[in-house]
Amino acid sequence: MATNRTFTMIKPDAVQNGHIGNILAMITNGGFKIVSLKLTQLTVADAQAFYAVHAARPFYGELVEFMSRGPIVAAILEKDNAVEDFRTLIGATNPAEAAEGTIRKAYATSIGENAVHGSDSDENAAIEVFLHSISYTECYNPKRFDRQ
Ligand code: RTP
Ligand code: MG
Predict the structure, then answer these.
(1) Contact, 72 vs 121, CB < 8 A?
(2) Which CDD domains match (predicted)?
(3) Which of 19, 54, 117, 132 is catalytic?
(4) 89 three-class SS
């Protein structure tokens, strides 16, 4: 197990339903260190690009509309075995199949609106962390703190 990073988003349903604080608490209590955090909103183009791997799936249009419809919280998380352990913490895609104690069991409302995203491989985590860092330079650039 290596200490490494994964990428998460608290999706628009969970933000809208007031679960940001409880989900961040579950993440922290799960042993993850939050190393970047941003309240933001995806454009349609951002959501299309982020989930491009699913472009041919029947739920793609609905997924893009959902992910861009309201604020999200995007975060980079650090932990030993981060990607796999975070997938365990969030639970199955379909909340009806999610284990007790998982974030999706607690906060997802349907297979489509399932509260959180987690990177599914180290390779995709690296891509998603990189995209996050270049998109949100203002909260990632240490020089920002020199200006105060
Ligand atoms: P995510 O990428 O958001 O962490 O979710 P995941 O790996 O558990 O699931 P994935 O297969 O990558 O699907 C991406 C997201 O698409 C929506 N979805 N809707 N209506 C449906 O049948 C359906 N299937 C998937 C969910 O929001 C899912 O998380
Ligand atoms: Mg996925």
Answers:
(1) no
(2) NDPk_I (cd04413)
(3) 117
(4) helix
| Residues with C-beta less than 6 Å from any ligand 1 atom | 54, 59, 63, 93, 111-112, 114, 117-118, 120
Is 69 annotated to bind a ligand? Reply is no
First to last CA, the chain: 39
pTM: 0.91
Which residue CA neighbors atom 27 of ligand 1 most closely? 112
DSSP letter at 11 equals -
What are the residue ranges spanned by the domains of the chain? 3-147
pLDDT band (50, 70, 90) for residue 134: confident
Six token digits for residue 118: 């987690």
Ligand 1 pocket test, candidate residues 93, 105, 117, 127, most atoms within 8 A of CB:
93
Amino acid in position 82: A
Fold of domain 3-147: Alpha-Beta Plaits (3.30.70)
d(CA 76, CA 7): 5
Q: How many CB atoms lie within 10 A of CB 84?
A: 16
